[in-house]
Amino acid sequence: MADPPPPDRCILIPDEIAIWEILVRLPPKSLIRCRAVCPAWRRATSTRDFLLAHHARQPTLPILCSLEDNDDDDTSLYITPFDHRTSGKLQPLARLDAASDICLRLSASCDGLLVLSFRNMSSFGCQFSICNPATRQYAPLPLDYGPTVEYTIFGIYPHIPTGEYRLLLHRLHMLRCDGCYVFSLGSGQQLRYVGRPDLWKLTGSPRSVLFRGSLHWHSSGIMVMVFDTTSESFLRMRSPVFPGYADLYDIGDMLGLCSHDNEWTSVSIWALQDYEGEVWTLKYRVKLPVAEIWVHDKLDSDWDVVVGSWDGDVVLLVTVDGGNMLFQVDINGKLVATICCCRDLYSAHLWLKQTLVLHTFFPTLEGYAVNALPFI
């Protein structure tokens, strides 16, 4: 056996291994720091092929948000992806500012892109922007806003045949349903009408999940709405029958659904075992540690539950409406971590898979900026 190298000698790793086995697995912020090591690393880690491979290796994490009022009458939105493997440390990825009379929220996410909604408290409807928090790119969306027009974002998706990113929107005009439209980012096209599905049974906010090339969102206790992003047409699927509210999740090779009872004592996690046959299977029923949570939350507040991972170690995140506590619960109903934040937390019911890919549509949008407001 060869003797180990002396302690004062470092072992040199070939650039090929360092780049494609180590750097490609780093978080975006760490990768950006490593680019300063040498010009060769900077060039290699800036190519599109590397950035796509790097994006593919990033974890998909649930997004937590928090709001903070500032001394200058502005409001800050903190965006924090939660990774249960980091010992419960909450580290905001980005902070965005808006005037105090503006309600700033996240509306959709896809491939590291976030769609933001800005609602003026004194006017009708929202305006929307898109950003990449990893690259700090930002641009307003040029929709035909007006005093009698209101949009709801149903999702953002890559249109595989064209390579474009597109938005699916629902439009109200004079408080009447005007149907659903598609908007292609950076193409210079106007809104394109794609149909008027029966959406009146939608429950809660229509947060969609992109799975098998289609957007899915829960509509009622017996239905899931589906939008095929290739043909850009609507379908409907069955869902499990249960009382109360439900959220959809992508759990790898299956579509998942999380529901809770009306008393907030248990959570049921379903999986779409047979997608074509629309057959759901109850995977887990988790009894929540209500008494332990009540020790920290003595008020009669609304709770919110998010499935935090699906890698053999399913984690539930319980947040309390208007509170600054996050409760991490394992699949057996055990409270494994209690995390306190300096600001009030809430779940965006969206997921983030960070990317450093520079999308070509950003510079084509009027108002495009990097490292500028609303980023702080």
UniProtKB/TrEMBL annotation:
Pfam families xrefs: F-box (PF00646), FBA_3 (PF08268)
- Organism, per UniProt? Triticum aestivum
Q: Domain F-box, which positions?
A: 13-54
**Which SMART domains does its entry note?**
FBOX
**SUPFAM superfamilies noted in UniProt:** F-box domain (SSF81383)
What is the protein name for this chain? F-box domain-containing protein
Q: Which InterPro entries match?
A: F-box-assoc_dom_typ3 (IPR013187), F-box-assoc_interact_dom (IPR017451), F-box-like_dom_sf (IPR036047), F-box_dom (IPR001810), SCF_F-box_component (IPR050796)
